[in-house]
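dumping this here so i dont lose it
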């Protein structure tokens, strides 16, 4: 869980936003925007409770630096 006293969390709170970890965000949100590093997305996404939610996926399955295409 992110430190709620950090400058980033305080700036988010001032804008009416809340920082959380991926599992809490997926559970809480009606709309979930996924923008994670590919390796994190491949390991965490199958575990997230996303059924019935609007999911906006901003991930890129290509990692051109390593010539790797994820098996999605």
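and the seq i came up w/
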């Amino acid at each position: 869980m992110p430190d709620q006293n950090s400058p980033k969390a305080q700036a988010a709170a001032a804008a009416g936003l809340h920082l959380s970890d991926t599992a809490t965000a997926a559970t809480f949100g009606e709309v979930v925007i996924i923008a994670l590093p590919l390796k994190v997305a491949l390991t965490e996404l199958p575990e997230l409770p996303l059924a019935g939610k609007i999911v906006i996926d901003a991930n890129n399955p290509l990692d051109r630096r390593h010539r790797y295409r994820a098996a999605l």
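The helical segments are 7-14, 22-28, 38-44.
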